[in-house]
Amino acid sequence: MHIAEGFLPPAHAVGWTIAAAPFVVHGARAVATEVRRNPESTLLLGAAGAFTFVLSAIKLPSVTGSSSHPTGTGAGAILFRPPVMALLGTVVLLFQALLLAHGGLTTLGANAFSMAVVGPWVGYGAYRLTRALTGNLLAAVFAGMALADLATYVTTSLQLALAFPDAETGFAGAAVKFLGVFALTQVPLAIGEGLLGVLLFRALISNARPELVRLGVLPAEPDDVLPDTPAPAGTSPAAPSTDDGDGAHR
Questions:
Q1: What does pTM read for this prediction?
Q2: What are the residues facing 166 on neighbouring strands?
Q3: What is the CATH number of domain 10-215?
Q4: What's the pLDDT score for residue 229?
Q5: Rounded distance, CA 8 to CA 13, Å?
Q6: Helix (H) or strand (E) holding 179
Q7: Residue 127 backbone dihedrals phi, psi, to 5 degrees
Q8: Cα–Cα distances in Å, from 153 out to 26, 39, 71, 98, 140?
């Protein structure tokens, strides 16, 4: 849903930049704190940023002046909390604007507000709520990643409606128009992103379970040995878990 370079009126471009800036600054502090306290998180932080870059670079034509694509921000929000994604998402958008001509510098604030701020917070809220109601990690991941995508599309639609209200029906009419056109591509993309998230977290559960435990995504078990924590002398490493995310161990 990147809004193209120069598409927004200058006042709107400046306004959205001002709105996004505090979240990005807070996100930079959150990333610095995470890396300082847990240096082993650096690789997974980079992977979360790369995942967002790759997914959001898949560009499908949509409303004039914008595009439809997955976002990938839900995964990072689930792993590291939304503030971290405010910085990572903005860095991704900046690189895409400079290297791929995807989005733009004048619209960076608007795109960051929708994809790096609103999307991660809504996705994380959906993840926490679904997990509290169902107790199922993978269902919560699906909801979080799908709704992070949809929230980004809704925000972009509202941004465009504010900038270009309908001559007769104003903001409301323009919002309905933009939401309707985006929905044709974005709803299927959101469902696909949710399913991709399930596959991603299944892989993480199988290959990076101690890290998920440390991040609080999975509960600790008596035999867990967290990263940088040596196993007690005279004991053998715990057998790998086959937790599939729904609380069952096989």
A1: 0.84
A2: 170
A3: 1.10.1760.20
A4: 43
A5: 6
A6: helix 170-207
A7: -60, -50
A8: 23, 34, 10, 22, 20
Which residues, 6 or more positions from 204, have their beta carbon under 8 angstroms from its beta carbon?
A: 211, 212
How far is residue 146 from each of residues 18, 167, 202, measured CA to CA in Å?
A: 27, 33, 16
Distance CA 115, CA 130 (A): 21
Residues whose CB falls within 8 Å of the CB of residue 202, separated by 6 or more in sequence, listed in order: 138, 244, 245
Low-confidence ranges of the chain (pLDDT < 50): 222-242, 247-250
Structure tokens at 170: 């104003």
Asked if 80 contacts 34 with a C-beta cutoff of 8 angstroms, the reply is yes
Residue ranges covered by each domain of the chain: 10-215
pLDDT tens across 98-144, in order?
998 888 999 999 999 999 999 999 999 999 999 999 999 999 999 99
Measured CA to CA, the distance from residue 60 to residue 149 in angstroms comes to: 14
Count of positions (residues) in the chain: 250
Residue carrying the six token digits 């795109």: 111
